[in-house]
Amino acid sequence: MGNTWDLSTKAYGENKNSDEIARFNEDSMLVEFQTQRAVNVELQFEDMEKDMSNEAVLDVYLKTHSERC
Q: CA neighbours within 13 Å on the CB side: how many for 12?
């Protein structure tokens, strides 16, 4: 959170939605922007219950995406 709009699009690619709620990474990450700063980030998985309870899957996802910023 706190990334600027420009940093987010450089790190995660093209936004697939609006300027206020951006969709990145094949809709797996929703980012809410206010005054050009990310204020909320929501991760989505195909099988949310399974993937969120699998620490290995979550760790790989977070590591991969944190390296981009």
A: 26
